[in-house]
Specification:
This protein has 383 residues and is an alpha+beta fold. Helix content is 41%, strand content 15%. It has 17 helices and 13 strands. β6 and β7 form a beta hairpin. The protein is globular and about 80 Å long. 34% of the residues are buried.
Length: 383
Amino acid sequence: MLIRYGTNEKGKRVKIANIYTVDEHGITGDKIDKDAFKIIRKLKNAGFDAYVVGGAVRDLLIGRTPKDFDIVTDAHPRQIKKLFWNARIIGRRFRLVHIHYDEKIIEVSTYRGLNPGDEQNIFGSSLEDDVKRRDFSFNALYYSPIDEQVIDYVNGYKDVMHKKITSLIPLDVTFVEDPVRLIRAVKYAATTGFVVPGKLKKALKKYSTELDRVSVSRITEELLKILASGHSREIFEYCAEYNILQFIVPKVAENLDDSVLESLERLDNEIENNGGVGRGFMLYSLVRPFLKPPSKAMVKAKIAFREVFKDAKAVIAPLTPPNIEVEKAVVFYFKELGLPVRSSNNNRGKKNRNRRGRRPSHKTTKKPNMNNSKVTITTKNES
């Protein structure tokens, strides 16, 4: 292990970080996404620092293949954009860069800092600044694929080795500052199997009501991440245990029984077997146990789809995923029941034409396995 030194306020040389070599952590450069590696190399060649950060480093340390390779750098968004033709700057309060490839997006963020007396992020000037804005110790690990070194300022490496979740911000501050960290803490515990210390357990329950302050759109985004994680059953169980689920999907929290958990487990298995599914199927897996087959009268009156759509929306209220995704969920349900699908999609006609007079492109996606069904469904813009 190597040591990184800095100077304190008195100008004295002090240890500020541990640097673990490849012989210790075992992460070789070839385990990094090739495009993420290219981004880091290009930033380095341009005179900037750049590292893989956070969850990807944690997953590599515990032997998992990361889904995403987030990068942090001292380059500012416009400097990054000048280097990459396929880069897009996003965000308002804190601007990030998304670098687009055919099948993925790699997120590149500038070091974060903090204004004194202000909780909002600003750009930081150093890696040390960025560390101070991280939530949990295992999210404050930085990996350089060029040097094959893991840089650790906060003993996050040891926490990963001991499978322990440690908050870097005082527990009476962190969940008030950003309540979504409650969901993230539970998600980390469920997906990694790491230990939740007693003090953290108490804090999760104590501050769960803070989620009432979070916007519906942000909670909706977190729900979709949970459903896409491949560990939705475990995460829902943890959220229920720590009084968090009622602030995400209240109706599901009130009726979290075996039928719901089994439906989520089937979703997790589908994601594991296929590498992912569309949002329509994810929402279908969540709302299915709550839906009732439409009556013959509704089917005959051609209002069945509309009524089931309303029921599906009620299950996930007050969350607001795009209506098109909820419609896809209902399509899956109707296909399961063997009913004709008559949604608003079928009657859009000319409204669905673009400016050149063409209909939007369709692509056929294979329906996830439901009771060994071989049905293929054609939907619009399934992702």
